From TrEMBL:
Single Gene Ontology MF annotation: ATP binding
Stored Gene3D superfamilies: P-loop containing nucleotide triphosphate hydrolases
PROSITE patterns noted in UniProt: ABC_TRANSPORTER_1, ABC_TRANSPORTER_2
Top-level taxonomy: Bacteria, Pseudomonadati, Pseudomonadota, Gammaproteobacteria, Oceanospirillales
Keywords attached to this entry: ATP-binding, Nucleotide-binding, Transport
Domain ABC transporter span(s) in chain numbering: 5-234
Origin superkingdom: Bacteria
A family per Pfam: ABC_tran
Full protein name: ABC transporter ATP-binding protein
Length: 313
């Protein structure tokens, strides 16, 4: 895969003197779904806004499909669709008119057949003559997506696409995003719902205080930084952990009624057999056992917290 977006040494200091981005380097691969995660104020919107040519970069360079977003703004911007967080439309306009207008903004020739298919795909076709003010919140979001896609961009940015939408619409949006990717559109989304990134993304970027802390394949990330826990529910409570089990660094919970073993998600599975044998040799009986795996949310929280406290992994 080749990079469709290339961010090189990007730094942004707002006129207030606040440094919102610090030497960000990032390549987005053609055809991927990339999720950018970060706490409030981390710099996600600033980064997206610079790539989309809405905010001026400070130092550094951004290329969209090889076009410099400053020097070759129009060509670069034409490649990109942006679904903003906030509704930024004339609410008295009709759906069809607003979508057609968006296409015209990019100097694209009218293509009613394309726009009809777009509105049909977004379940908006029967609302094409409705004024935006008369639509539900979920439909307004779909209109924002239709506007962003009206000029047939190859790259789609979604800034918090499902903030405040109900579960059903969120699932619909996820399906919509997947369908777009199948059609070859590269998707970059920011989200506070880690579950969304876990569900959708091929790769994850974590940004904190203007610094890109990590960019990794999602599955590899969850394997590398994820933890698993094996919990044994004991028949008889233990007062202390017997000496032969000490090397496993077990925790004794629930008044001595459960033994918990925490291990790396990519650890050798043999380690569990060894532990269970040691438990048996120590004459400890258990009535039940189960394993859990840390979510992307656990990993994200520990990354951001560790960086705040200066801890290293
Ligand atoms: N125009 C501006 N002038 C000065 N500071 C700004 C400006 N826009 C953003 N900032 C600051 O830059 C930092 C990054 O903001 P940004 O909106 O990029 O964060 P974010 O990660 O998108 O946050 P959120 O998740 O809350 O949307 C914040 O501290 C914000 O206050």
């Amino acid at each position: 895969m080749s990079a469709i977006i290339s961010v090189q040494g990007l730094t942004k200091t707002y006129p207030s003197g606040f440094q919102a981005l610090k030497n960000v380097n990032l390549d987005i691969q053609r055809g991927e779904i990339f999720a950018l995660l970060g706490p409030n104020g981390a710099g996600k919107t600033t980064l997206i806004s610079i790539i989309c040519g809405i905010v001026n970069p400070g130092d550094g360079r951004v290329l969209a499909d090889g076009k410099d977003v400053v020097q070759d703004y129009r060509a670069a911007r034409q490649k990109i669709g942006l679904v903003p967080q906030e509704l930024a439309v004339n609410i008295f306009e009709k759906v069809w008119d607003t979508v057609q207008f968006s296409r015209g903004l990019f100097g694209k020739a009218p293509n009613p057949a394309y726009l009809e298919q777009l509105l049909r795909d977004l379940s908006l076709w029967d609302k094409k003559d409705s004024k935006i003010i008369a639509l539900s919140g979920g439909m307004k979001r779909r209109v924002l997506i239709a506007k962003a896609l009206a000029h047939e961009p190859e790259i789609l940015f979604l800034d918090e696409p499902t903030a405040g939408v109900d579960v059903e619409l969120r699932r619909d949006m996820w399906q919509m995003i997947r369908t777009l990717r199948e059609k070859g559109v590269t998707i970059i989304l920011t989200t506070h719902y880690i579950e969304e990134a876990e569900e959708m993304a091929d790769r994850i970027g974590v940004i904190n205080k203007g610094e890109l802390m990590l960019v990794e394949d999602k599955t590899a990330l969850m394997k590398k930084l994820g933890k698993k826990q094996l919990t044994l529910q004991l028949v008889e409570p233990l007062a202390t952990i017997p000496a032969p089990l000490e090397p496993f660094c077990l925790a004794l919970d629930h008044g001595g009624n459960t033994l918990v073993y925490t291990y790396d998600a990519d650890a050798d599975p043999q380690v569990i057999t060894t532990l269970l044998r040691a438990v048996q040799n120590a004459h400890i009986e258990f009535r039940d056992l189960h394993t859990t795996q840390s979510s992307l949310e656990d990993i994200f929280v520990s990354l951001v917290t560790d960086s705040a406290t200066g801890a290293t992994a």
